[in-house]
Amino acid sequence: MSTNIKISGLIAVLIGVISFAAATVSNASASGISSIPNAALASTPTKAAKPTATPLPPAPLPLFLALAPGGGQANNNIFSFAKTLSQISNGGVSFMPIPSPAGDYVAYGYIPVTYLKQNGARSGIGPPENITLLSMSTNKKETIAGQPTNVNFDVSQNGTLAFTLRSYPSWSPDGTKLAWTEITVDQAANINMDLAIEQLVVYDLTTKTTQVIVARLPDHRFPSGPADPAKSVVAWGQGGIAVQVASATLDYGFTIYVYTPAGKLISQTSEDTILVGLDNGQMIWVKNGTADMITAVGGSLLIDPLTGNLYTNPGTDELYNPRAPHALSLYFGSDTGNEASTNWLIAQNGKPVQTLSGIIITSNFGAAISPDGKQAAFMVYQGQGSSGTVTIFKNGSPRNLGVSSVNGIAWSAPAWRINLQGQDF
After folding, report:
1. What does residue 39 show for φ and ψ, rounded to 5 degrees?
2. What residues are paired with 416 via a beta bridge?
3. Could you read off the pLDDT of 210-242 as tens digits, one per residue?
4. What end-to-end distance do the CA atoms of the chain give, in Å?
5. Which of the 8 DSSP states describes residue 247?
6. Among 49, 54, 52, which Cα is nearest to 290's?
7. Is the pTM above the cut of 0.90?
8. Which residues of 306-320 are buried (b: 16+ CB within 10 A; e: fewer)?
9. 205 Cβ contact list (under 8 Å, min separation 6)
């Protein structure tokens, strides 16, 4: 095997998304972070004009669950739930379901069977990820990003390693494209043996082609050794494609880069300020009035995608469905003093109607709103680090779905906006 890689054991399969590692802001002005200035507020108001709902999908989407029967994550698969539970993926380990904004497809990543057959515990290579599209109209599945034809994860076969590691995909706002990152290794051709080159790619559903739009992203670090690259996180919003890189020059924390769909750099955050105020949630795009900003779920900062400047979040992040903007939504209420659970509020037209206790929402996969906005689903955990059960709120009351060992849920494409604690939308 090449001397550029030293394999030291299995890199654990990580089902959750990479989160922001951050400290609490104790003095925003001292950290170079300011409140949004009055001039900015004038152009990016915190109260938007009444939104117009977009049309519903042609057919109602079921609730999707990343479920591991028997517990754990090693046998995680995708299921759908309408009136009964139906398994969608099989034959490996599948990751979180990601519905398109149009509601016509669901994307999900999975660890290929080749990796499992070659004994991932022995290979030492952090798990690869293929990407599949499920058509909601035909119920057919198509792998749009697989492994190279000469794929090999077995380090005992000296000189023949060949594989691709990928991030979670992210939909374009119009639902016609997907973006993700790739780290491809080909030992026989001596390509990327140090796993340092990570590319940003875009897949076009219309042409069924994949294009590299950034040939090399800024260098990432290796948290647990040379076989464990910290894959970047991608979030595509109206303001561009945001890429969260675990910067090689930092011991912890991230730098956010924003690119156009053609791969031109728009902005980046400063490494010395990104370490604070972004808490421990998934990177998301959020509507601050009419402006599109970047934050983390539960984050106390907003990032201007045009400049990379950081501002204090004037409210709280609210999960809603843009197809039904005046219907049910969820936003953070308060801490409980127990880091394994927090209080969130179910709201109708932005006004709280019920408090939810004992839940944690740190990503797009912890809660979901139905396509018509009349139901909300959320995960309830028994303790920190555990998988959860699912509760559905409908007609003013919650009911437990009766399934356990759930690692994530999705119902329609998630959207977030800033709520100034109960404002009327």
Report:
1. -65, -40
2. 319
3. 999 999 999 999 887 787 899 999 999 999 999
4. 60
5. B
6. 49
7. no
8. eebbbbebbbbbbbb
9. 105, 133, 176, 177, 178
